[in-house]
Amino acid sequence: MQRLFGTFPNRGAGLALVILRVTVAVVLISGARLCPGPGVGPGVEVLATLAGIAAVLLMVGWYTPLAAGLAVLVSLGTLWFCHETTVNVLIIAILVSISLLGAGAYSVDARLYGRRRLVVGRPQGKAQ
Fold this sequence. Notes:
Blueprint: H1 11-33, H2 43-60, H3 64-82, H4 85-101, H5 108-113
Helix pairs in contact: 1-2, 1-4, 2-3, 3-4
């Protein structure tokens, strides 16, 4: 499972990843909901639902690489239905970066799969 996640940077880099994840999540939700109305079709509601799921997963940092992949698919769908190229291309580039960097130390991923401390040796308190 460790291959799926990055190195979980903390302090400044971890805080920057939190800000980046939250900002992208807000843009995802607003981009999927601001599509032009009636002539677009039923795909926009599906995109809005998937954008909401991906945004929540990105905000809390849970399965971040998979959530970023889902968000890339949502952005591609928004690009297809809404024809907004500039924002979607930039968001896709940022999502690929988040997917490669991981969630950072301030996330659910770090709590579940973060750094572990292994102590090798004789257990304390047992006499031989």
